Amino acid sequence: MSLLPTFTTTDVQERRPAVAVLPVGSFEQHGPYLPLITDTAIASVIARELAAAYPVLHLPPITVACSHEHKAWPGTVSISARTLYSVIDDIRVSLSHSGIDKLVIVNGHGGNYVLSNVVQEANVAKRCMSLFPQSGDWQRARERAGLKSDPWGDMHAGEAETSMLLHYEPDLVRSGYETADHDGGDRRFLLTEGMEPYTESGVIGFPSLASAEKGRLLIESVTADFAPHLALLTTGAAEEN
Which among 176, 202, 206, 210 is least buried, having the fewest CB atoms inside 10 angstroms? Predict the structure, then answer.
């Protein structure tokens, strides 16, 4: 199944979605066994599943974002936070011109901190944007999927990310994840030093614990937890979930 939306303009006209979902990923190292597009692939999978379950417009992903903490590894490409902000704001404005005035950013990369500011500022004038999944959505998903690691220890290319790709895009996963576990420790100066002092491989997490079944349950959980986010944008009140 394609990670990119393949509908036509007629499809959109017939469906008349009031909300668009925009996957935002990254192009950054994920160790020797996951591709540089890992975050983009995961965000796109989530957006694809949301579009299958809810009346939303699935947009193509933003594939390069804020990955400055990964600069030590070849292949990683970043743009500035101000550029990412501007691109998303331009997309929001363009959508509004075509009658879609609600936008959900589906974020696949934890380093895209500026997305929180984008959403907060957009909502000052009127409620029009959301950031998904939130940390609580991911925490519930990890519990429902039976993950053994915690979000802090399993920060990058670990049990969660490897599991999701094993189920939804297994051709993207190379061998080696079974023996690549690495505990990155405290990491208190990550913003100043980047990831290099905390990992040689680029991995901080426990991919040996990954499984396709966990990946399926993770995505199913966040898909179900999208309902109150959508309700808040469309009706003004979050549904109980």
Answer: 176
